[in-house]
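Continuing the batch. This is chain 6 of the set; chains 1 through 5 are on the previous pages. Same settings as before, nothing changed between runs. Recording input and output for traceability.
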Amino acid sequence: LDEPTNHLDIAHQLSLLDLIRSLNRQAGVTVLAVFHDLNLASEYCDRLLLLDRGRANAEGSPQVVLTADRIGRIYSANVLVERNPVSSRPHVVVSAGMNHPPGSPSAPDKFAEETMQERIRAC
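Output for chain 6:
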């Protein structure tokens, strides 16, 4: 499936992915899907293959693949990866204005970065 939830509202995304998961679990159907939404992929996929410029970068469980360092490098974005309090799966947290990975020439200074991370955690 190529972006099966693209252009769907949240309720329909979840309904469709629950149906696909049900087919996978009950009928033993293997499902291969492409997602740009890393959080949906984390919630619904047992295994992930993360691509970087068309090449495999990492493969494994969401816990193995979705790390802040890896996501930051591939997407050139400063992110936090937290544990979803409901499912315990990785959850990628982004914030406007923090779109440069640590160490890049245009990255915010350390104080600004720490302040933003504190704000995100407080939400």
